[in-house]
Amino acid sequence: xxxxxxxxxxxxxxxxxxxxxxxxxxxxxxxxxxxxxxxxxxxxxxxxxxxxxxxxxxxxxxxxxxxxxxxxxxxxxxxxxxxxxxxxxxxxxxxxxxxxxxxxxxxxxxxxxxxxxxxxxxxxxxxx
Length: 128
What we know:
It contains six helices and no strands. By secondary structure, it is mainly alpha-helical. Helix 1 crosses helix 4 (66-77), helix 1 (8-31) crosses helix 5 and helix 3 packs across helix 5. It has helices at residues 8-31, 35-46, 48-60, 66-77, 89-107, 111-127. Its cofactor is Mg(2+).
């Protein structure tokens, strides 16, 4: 299977789960707190607003390869038939672009690159 050929919203669906799992592991090990507190902290990393801001930082830092930028663009421009919850459409689309590239790296088994991206995302959010 060529992950590049998948629908960008399918990649974003996968990327959402991968990012969520990475963040959960990170905060569980970091905070060792009760589930409600963990959930509140995790939103700082996985909300659409946070993901959109993080994507902008990554693009400014020229973090992505050309292939990855293409996936980001496809994810950002994909027509979603679900409504964005608690955010505007533009923010939702940017977050979908970030999730799409995460999903792509995961499904394409680019594990080193994926780990580097996930760690960078956490670092960017921690620095805010």
